[in-house]
Write a sequence for this structure.
């Protein structure tokens, strides 16, 4: 299929789990675990039912406009959003559970 569009080859980026405790170690060739996918590849803003706060949307826009990828900030923002999404999906959000 890619050849029909003029591609000579297709590069595959490993999708293994990174070191989430140290997002600056961002090489896909040094995964912390080859059994799990990298949750940072999830497009949080595309998840069904996800609604970002004004602050989150501003942070996303700023990160997308940056000249370089701020892996630490991207990881922090995505993990926070995914945890909130998970709590909301399970119906566990409330004043006692941020």
């Amino acid at each position: 299929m890619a050849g029909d569009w003029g591609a000579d080859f297709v590069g595959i980026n490993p999708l293994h789990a990174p070191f989430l405790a140290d997002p600056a170690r961002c090489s896909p060739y040094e995964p912390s675990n080859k059994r799990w996918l990298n949750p940072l590849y999830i497009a949080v803003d595309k998840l069904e039912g996800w609604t970002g706060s004004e602050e989150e949307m501003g942070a996303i826009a700023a990160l997308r406009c940056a000249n370089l990828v701020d892996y630490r900030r991207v990881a922090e923002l995505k993990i926070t959003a995914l945890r909130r999404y998970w709590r909301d999906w399970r119906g566990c959000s409330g004043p006692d559970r941020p």
